[in-house]
Write a structure and sequence with these properties.
One of its GO terms (biological process) is amino acid transport. With 349 residues, the chain is α+β, with helices and mostly antiparallel strands. The protein has two domains: 232 residues, 3-Layer(aba) Sandwich (Rossmann fold), CATH 3.40.50.300; 95 residues, ACT domain (Alpha-Beta Plaits), CATH 3.30.70.260. Helix content is 33%, strand content 31%. It binds adenosine-5'-triphosphate.
């Protein structure tokens, strides 16, 4: 995999305040890179540096092997920057369509500099509308379309110049959950079929879980955690990440209702997380049989992470310390990630 977007030590300062503070991020070709964080974390400002819609106050920006910015200066001509920008499509929460123009005219508008003959222009615009499932709405006006359909038009328009990167800045925030999933699935399809790299800014973990392969968590202008989605999901280190990892949060909420003060010395609570495909469905029964014990399952959940089912269990083991170790080894040998829960709270020991 080759690095396609390389942001190094990016600062963006507004009125002496750092909206982005020393952020480095590498996006590889073919990634769907989710950038998650609460409002004001600096996500939009950071991604706007990718095509220099926002100039950094410090740091360097390299896209598709071309350095665009370094040492406080744009390092290519404006003309070249325009060309580079064409390779980076963007979609936003607001669709920003031209209401007086038809759907096909909206898409064709993005091709106005492409020097295509009229029939080629129409053919290309129709092809793009077909790609997003809206060919039959070519002659409709935006107001006649639903929010999800309007976002599809915006996606077709963003793809007009055949970009190899698509930046989606809260593009599903104004949509209902079902439409959100349809748009996310469209981005996933485009990623696979067009080999389109997607940078997905959102405050919704569900969106990241559905389609992303990588994740960066932003807080106060900094990336506090990043990496492969499954790894970050299975081993969240940062408090904010733990909050975004819905299953863990839900588990803690439920476990907090148990009375852990009543646990005996031999009782320990563990969180087991595993890829369903890797593990026999009877993992806890297998453990009980191997160690001649009876474990209690206090919480169980299955989530789908970019198409992969991940199981989470909170299990109470009633074993002496040596046997606890044997149990953990038994589970880890079976590709289960085991984390001790201290009275229901995730710990790192
Ligand atoms: N042009 C600007 N001038 C001054 N301050 C700005 C500007 N753009 C962003 N900011 C500030 O920078 C910080 C980060 O904003 P940014 O929009 O990047 O956050 P975000 O994580 O994308 O949140 P949101 O989802 O609300 O857009 C905020 O405090 C915001 O007020």
């Amino acid at each position: 995999m080759s690095v396609q977007i390389d942001l190094k030590n990016i600062d963006v300062e507004f009125d002496g305040n750092k909206a982005v503070n020393d952020v480095s991020l590498q996006v590889e070709k073919g990634d769907i890179y989710g950038i998650i964080g609460f409002s004001g974390a600096g996500k939009s400002t950071l991604v706007r540096t990718i095509n220099l819609l926002q100039e950094p106050s410090n740091g360097s920006v390299t896209v598709n092997g071309t350095e665009l910015f370094a040492n406080h200066h744009q390092t290519i001509s404006n003309r070249k920057l325009q060309d580079e920008r064409k390779k980076i499509g963007m979609i936003f929460q607001h669709f920003n369509l031209l209401n007086e123009a038809t759907v096909i005219e909206n898409v064709a508008f993005a091709l106005k500099h492409a020097k295509l003959k009229d029939n080629e222009l129409e053919k290309r615009a129709l092809h793009l509308l077909d790609l997003v499932g809206l060919k039959e709405f070519a002659d409709s006006y935006p107001a006649q379309l639903s929010g999800g359909q309007q976002q599809r038009v915006a996606i077709a328009r963003a793809l007009a110049n055949e970009p190899d990167i698509l930046i989606s800045d809260e593009a599903t925030s104004a949509l209902d959950p079902k439409t959100t999933n349809q748009i996310l699935d469209l981005l996933y399809k485009l990623n696979k079929e067009l080999k389109l790299t997607v940078v997905l800014i959102t405050h919704e973990m569900d969106a990241v879980k559905r389609v992303a392969n990588k994740i960066a968590v932003m807080e106060n202008g900094k990336i506090v955690e990043h990496g492969n989605l499954r790894e970050v999901y299975l081993h969240p280190q940062n408090e904010l990440t733990k909050q975004f990892v819905g299953g863990a949060l839900e588990a803690q909420h439920i476990l907090n209702t148990y009375h852990f003060d009543a646990l005996t010395d031999n009782e320990e609570l563990y969180q087991l997380v595993y890829k369903i495909d890797d593990v026999t469905k009877s993992i806890v029964a297998d453990l009980d049989e191997a160690l001649d014990t009876k474990s209690s399952i206090l919480y169980g959940n299955v989530e789908v992470l970019s198409g992969e089912a991940i199981g989470t269990l909170a299990v109470l083991l009633n074993l002496d310390q040596d046997k606890q170790k044997t149990a953990i080894k038994f589970l880890e040998d079976k590709n289960v990630v085991v984390t001790k829960l201290n009275k229901g709270v995730l710990t790192n020991d």
